[in-house]
Design a protein that fits this description.
By secondary structure, the protein is an alpha/beta fold. It has 12 helices and 45 strands. A hairpin with a 4-residue loop joins β28 and β29.
């Protein structure tokens, strides 16, 4: 009996040892057997004890063997992104089970064993709180990451990160350090995304930047103690200096930036779309795209109802300065139904000196408040489509050096000389000939030669106006006589008038007997009428036209001592030889002046074009 009991005891011990050994062997292969059947959960549990509900949901969803996964790993109580329970604005009310440790996401992105177990769709989480700083700097992430409607309060370190695509749609973040990040596809910061800090994407390489309905709010970076840096001029909400976006950069349909958007020397392969966006940095630069290269068009226009966002965002709004100094735009630059706000005396409006647009420049239904400026000095566009009601106030338009080929037709402001001279007159004080020459050139090329001449004459008026009353007098003479050289035939009309007047006066002097043969230069007068061969018209021509000798002025000249009367049209006119002589001297001077002005006008010596 004892032997039988001992044998049974021995068998029990052997069986227990076998079971224990099997259990130990299983435990030595992490992830081979785990909760819910997910190897990824088991692998993570050895490094991240006490996994939260959200972390388990993340790991289960990402597991490559999870063939029945939904769209997201749901951290909360609803799989609907629009459910209020998934609004990160209420993250303070979320319980700890919605936390996902930032280190867990990094481990999934860098650990070779973990990567082998993750589906190519990558990480897709809805409504989680990311606990701790997420550091993926210098990491080549092999899959996409989507953190939808998540709360990410700590700084995200993404410098030199390489990733197929990154979506933070609807999420709330602090600062993002993403200098030189490479996103092969879309960087999605849209649809309710809200950053409070500085999103630094300097020198980033992006397939597309999607920030529709995103909200970027500047806040000092806690890692930067230089508080003086954060004057308005340096309040960067989004830094894309030197960035390369291969497709479109969209800041549309409810986009809002409270701080500067930096696109200095950025390269955008398609459009820079800002329809319905709000760019707010009062008293400073709201968006700086100086020296940027934009392959498509630039648009700041009113946005109609966005069916995805479900709201009507309306007019584009800029409080501060849009700066496009030296920018290169591939197709068009459109500002339509936009509002420029700002305080009087503070910089606000559009500043685009030296900008080149290989297409039209649209300026339509624009509201420019409190002295907003429009600076297109040195810019180049193909055509201008604008409205007079959208022009800035006098003194706030800069167009010196602006070149264009024409103006748009209705319903835009016409391109006639009178209207466009009012446009040129909006420039601040000081005479600039180029705007007049450019307008005259365009009018001439479109067949409006009369309008072109009118513009050039207006240019002459402005030119002589700057020299005070002396300039105004000289300018009046040149304008009346030859239209500043643009109407030289006027000199012939004036010369003809002076000659006729002179002939009339000389005829009166002849009949009054004050004309005398010049003696002793000529032979003594004969007994008959000494002026019988004097022709008043030829005499006037001889006096007026230089270098012409018709043998009239040389032989007859009024005597200063002589006087007489002549009856003209029933009126007795007393003629004094001295006064007639003074008139002839004046006519000689007028002849020289008008002849010189005529020659200068014909040869172009006076013209400023």
């Amino acid at each position: 009996m004892r032997r039988r009991v001992a044998a049974l005891t021995w068998c029990a011990l052997v069986l227990g040892a076998f079971i224990a050994g099997s259990s130990c062997q299983a435990a030595s292969i992490p992830g081979e057997k785990s909760e819910g059947g997910s190897r990824l959960v088991g692998l993570a549990a050895t490094l991240f004890p006490n996994l939260t509900r959200a972390e388990r949901a993340l790991l289960n969803h990402a597991d490559v063997r999870n063939v029945g996964r939904g769209e997201f790993a749901v951290a909360g109580i609803s799989a609907n992104p629009a459910d209020p329970s998934n609004d990160p604005a209420h993250a303070d009310n979320w319980d700890a089970q919605r936390n996902i440790r930032a280190g867990l996401i990094r481990w999934m992105s860098v650990d070779p064993d973990a990567i082998r177990l993750i589906d190519p769709q990558g990480i897709r989480v809805l409504g989680a709180r990311i606990a701790g700083p997420l550091d993926l700097s210098q990491v080549r992430v092999p899959f996409a990451i989507t953190l939808r409607n998540c709360s990410i309060p700590a700084t995200m370190e993404l410098s030199s990160t390489e990733i197929p695509s990154l979506s933070l749609r609807g999420s709330s973040t602090g600062s993002i350090h993403g200098a030189a990040i490479e996103v092969a596809g879309v960087l999605d910061l849209s649809r309710g995304y809200h950053s409070k800090g500085v999103v630094n994407l300097q020198s980033a390489q992006l397939g597309m930047l999607h920030a529709t309905a995103g909200h970027f709010e500047f806040a000092p970076d806690p890692q930067d103690i230089s508080e003086e840096k954060y004057a308005n001029s340096a309040r960067d909400a989004l830094n894309l200096i030197y960035a390369d976006v291969r497709a479109t950069a969209a800041f549309t349909f409810g986009f809002e930036a409270d701080g500067r958007i930096e696109l200095y020397e950025a390269k955008i392969g398609a459009d820079l779309a800002c329809d319905g966006g709000k760019f707010l940095n009062s008293g400073a630069i709201a968006l700086d795209a100086s020296w940027a290269s934009i392959g498509g068009g630039v648009s700041f226009v009113s946005a109609e109802t966005d069916k995805i966002v479900g709201s009507k965002t309306g007019r584009a709004k800029i409080n501060g300065l849009l700066q496009f100094v030296g920018a290169r735009v591939g197709s068009y630059f459109s500002v339509d139904r936009a509002t420029f706000e700002g305080k009087q005396g503070e910089p606000h409006g559009l500043s685009a000196p030296g900008m080149q647009v290989n297409g039209f420049f649209l300026w339509n239904y624009v509201v420019m408040q409190n002295g907003a400026q429009l600076d297109l000095s040195g810019a180049s566009v193909t055509s201008i489509l604008d409205q007079e009601r959208s022009w800035p106030a006098p003194g706030n338009l800069q167009i010196n050096g602006l070149t264009y080929t024409g103006f748009g037709g209705p319903p835009f402001t016409p391109g006639d000389a009178e209207t466009r001279l009012r446009w040129i007159g909006l420039q601040p004080g000081g005479y600039h000939p180029q705007p007049y020459r450019q307008l005259a050139k365009v009018l001439h090329e479109t067949g409006d030669d009369a309008g072109a001449v009118r513009v050039l004459i207006a240019s002459g008026d402005a030119s002589f106006e700057q020299y005070g009353w002396q300039g105004r007098v000289l300018g009046w003479i040149l304008k009346v006589t030859i239209g500043y050289g643009h109407r030289p035939l006027r000199a012939i009309v004036w010369s003809f008038a002076v000659i006729i007047l002179g002939a009339f006066i000389v005829a009166i002097g002849k009949r009054a007997g004050v004309m005398r043969l010049t003696w002793p230069e000529n032979t003594p007068p004969p007994t008959e009428d000494p002026t019988a061969e004097m022709n008043p018209l030829l005499y006037s021509i001889d006096v007026f036209v230089p270098f012409v000798n018709l043998h009239q002025e040389h032989y007859w000249w009024p005597s200063a001592e002589a006087s007489g009367e002549c009856r003209v049209l029933g009126w007795n006119i007393h003629v004094n030889g001295g006064i007639l002589r003074a008139y002839l001297w004046t006519q000689i001077i007028a002849g020289w002046l008008l002849s010189a002005i005529f020659i200068a006008g014909v040869t172009g010596l006076i013209r400023s074009d």
